[in-house]
């Protein structure tokens, strides 16, 4: 890639301000083999162990990996962040992270953090986004009825997406439908959609097992081995779509559960879906967190330590046109030079009173 070969990736990052920010990498699921069937999982949330190792090796040759506590201490000091440090995080708390990523991290001596959805730990429940996606994909593949159903259901809620671009995309792509619904609906309405979709398409036991959350025993083992455990809320609710009481339950409740189970103060929070606005950032601060992590470069000037950007990577983030791993593309991701073409799609504006 020409940007990397001429160091233009670093120049663009400096112009955009990304080089003044710490390098924090985010992942979700870690699997043995990347799934070929998009109906079986959300592709952009998966990375194979082999690809994870390639990405971490490339970063590790150029950066010193640090824990979130060390990174936080550097940011709190007010001093400039060293250019050559990086932190690694995993969202949601999947069992496969414990089974596949954790051994790799231990082998390489890489500190990392896992943000867990506390109400799901030790249960057979699926993450709400996985459940909705799988049901949408299943219903659409079987009968093609998912888009029509969604249109009718949302109309009953007083929400019309058609003929907006969003509705046109929903008719083709379950992931687009997922993003649209999570962008506008409170969790109670999303659960109603899920309940109705469950009458149209069921999920196999194998699918349920593949997407399960890790156990409390696994959380405690990882914590004992030096993995930072942070909160990702109680149920993965999209906080800007919820009322103040629900936001407090999701943030404070998750922190209290983790502190009770781990016997340690929990200071790190990752916003579910990367969604936040001024009100939710303030609520996270009031819930007792010191550091918050996003999935974009938008910052809240009143709470900069609660809006720390991350680069979210997956199996195909760094593939070239031939489908091979590209160090040049990974360099552009890490240095933030792709932020010019991949602007944040999230709405961080305050909710109207």
- What is the element string, with H for helices and E for strands? HHEEEHEHEHEHHHHHHHEHEHEEH
The level of helicity is 40-55%
Biggest β-sheet: count, sense, barrel?
6 strands, parallel
**Number of DSSP strands?**
10
Mean pLDDT: 86
- Shape, per Cα inertia axes: globular
The CATH topology annotation of the largest domain reads as: TIM Barrel
- What's the CATH first level of the largest domain? Alpha Beta
Span of the ends, CA to CA: 47 Å
The CATH H-level homologous superfamily of the largest domain? Glycoside hydrolase/deacetylase
Give the total of domains. 2
Sheet-strand content, in percent, reads 5-15%
Runs in which pLDDT lies below 50 for 5 or more consecutive residues are: 163-169
Output the structural class.
alpha/beta
Cα gyration radius (Å): 20 Å
- CATH architecture field of the largest domain: Alpha-Beta Barrel
Q: Number of DSSP helices? A: 15
Could you explain how this protein is built, in words?
The strands form three sheets. Strands 1, 4, 5, 6, 7 and 10 form a six-stranded parallel sheet that branches. α6 packs parallel to α10. The chain has 15 helices and ten strands. α4 (68-77) links the parallel β4 and β5. The longest helix is centred in the C-terminal third of the chain and has 19 residues, at 244-262. The protein has 353 residues and is α/β, with parallel strands linked by helices. The chain is 44% helix and 10% strand.
């Amino acid at each position: 890639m020409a940007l990397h070969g001429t160091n233009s990736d670093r120049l663009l990052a400096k112009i955009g301000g990304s080089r003044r920010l710490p390098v924090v990498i985010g992942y979700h699921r870690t699997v043995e083999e990347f799934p070929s069937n998009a109906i079986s999982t959300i592709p952009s949330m998966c990375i194979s162990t082999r690809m994870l190792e390639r990405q971490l090796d490339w970063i590790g040759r150029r950066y010193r990996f640090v824990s979130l506590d060390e990174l936080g201490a550097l940011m709190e000091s007010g001093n400039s962040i060293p250019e050559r440090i990086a932190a690694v995080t995993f969202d949601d708390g999947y069992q496969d992270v414990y089974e596949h990523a954790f051994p790799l991290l231990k082998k390489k001596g890489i500190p990392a953090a896992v943000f867990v959805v506390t109400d799901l730990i030790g249960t057979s429940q699926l993450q709400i986004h996985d459940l909705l996606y799988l049901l949408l994909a299943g219903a659409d593949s079987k009968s093609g009825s998912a888009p029509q159903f969604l249109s009718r259901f949302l109309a009953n809620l007083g929400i019309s997406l058609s003929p907006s671009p969003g509705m046109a995309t929903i008719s083709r792509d379950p992931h687009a439908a997922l993003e649209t619904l999570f962008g506008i609906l409170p969790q109670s309405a999303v659960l109603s959609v899920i309940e109705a979709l469950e009458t149209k398409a069921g999920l196999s036991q194998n699918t349920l097992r593949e997407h399960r959350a890790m156990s409390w025993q696994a959380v405690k083992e990882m914590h004992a081995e030096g993995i930072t455990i942070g909160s990702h809320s109680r149920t993965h609710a999209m906080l800007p779509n919820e009322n103040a009481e629900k936001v407090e339950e999701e943030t404070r409740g998750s922190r209290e559960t983790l502190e009770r189970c781990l016997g340690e103060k929990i200071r790190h929070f990752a916003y579910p879906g990367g969604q936040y606005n001024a009100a939710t950032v303030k609520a996270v601060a009031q819930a007792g967190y010191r550091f918050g992590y996003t999935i974009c470069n938008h910052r809240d000037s009143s709470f900069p330590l609660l809006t720390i950007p991350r680069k979210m990577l997956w199996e195909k983030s760094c593939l070239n046109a031939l489908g091979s791993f590209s160090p040049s593309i990974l360099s552009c991701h890490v240095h933030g030079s792709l932020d010019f073409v991949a602007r944040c799609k999230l709405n961080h504006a305050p909710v109207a009173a």
